[in-house]
Write a structure and sequence with these properties.
With about 150 residues, the protein is of the alpha+beta class. The protein has a single domain, classed as Alpha-Beta Plaits, CATH 3.30.70. It contains five helices and seven strands; from the N terminus they run H-E-H-E-E-H-E-E-E-E-H-H. The longest helix is centred in the first third of the chain and has 14 residues. The chain starts with a helix and ends with a helix. It binds iron/sulfur cluster (SF4) (2 copies). The site of one iron/sulfur cluster has 13 residues, from helix 2.
Length: about 150
């Protein structure tokens, strides 16, 4: 009995410390790790391609007017498959190395974007503008009568 305990002790001591001092010493992530989804809003054109391929259907695209589109990502449902990052032609989605997503408030995991879109002259629906210049179009410009009043 005592000898088996001594044997266990010697095996344990020989192994050394095999744990990390988490959370002070987080475990490094392996190559290709798919952590929290991050969005580069400056690259996103609002095409909605990521919403089409997301198996968890957590990306909601809403056109609130002919010019404005809102994209909401409810990441509390994310399964970290990485399909949105693969599908995004603009490379606006990245699977980061961040894995500490636990929160008592799911709104902490909501990403919301409001994107100015082009408007189809025939059907009036939003579409993705061709270039950055197209995207600027008329938004924020003042009307002539406002300028005259200055
Ligand atoms: S696929 Fe990329 S560019 Fe298109 S809406 Fe998603 S993040 Fe934006
Ligand atoms: S990683 Fe997968 S589940 Fe998460 S937002 Fe992207 S496509 Fe959806």
């Amino acid at each position: 009995m005592i000898s088996s305990k001594l044997k266990q002790l010697s095996v344990g001591l020989k192994a050394g410390r095999v744990t990390l001092k988490y959370p002070f010493e987080p475990r490094p992530t392996p190559p290709g790790f798919r952590g929290k989804v991050t969005i580069n809003a400056e690259r996103c054109t609002g095409c909605g391609g990521c919403a089409t391929v997301c198996p968890a259907r957590l990306i909601k695209v809403t056109d609130i007017s002919p010019e404005w589109r809102i994209i909401r990502r409810h990441l509390e449902r994310c399964i970290h498959c990485g399909r949105c990052a693969e599908a995004c032609q603009e490379r606006a989605v990245e699977m980061s190395q961040e894995f500490e997503e636990a929160t008592p408030d799911k709104h902490d995991l909501l990403i919301e974007q409001k994107i100015y879109m082009g408007t189809c002259k025939r059907c009036g629906r939003c579409y993705t503008p061709f270039s950055v210049l197209d995207r600027h179009m008329t938004v924020g410009f003042r009307k002539e009568e406002e300028i005259d009043g200055i």
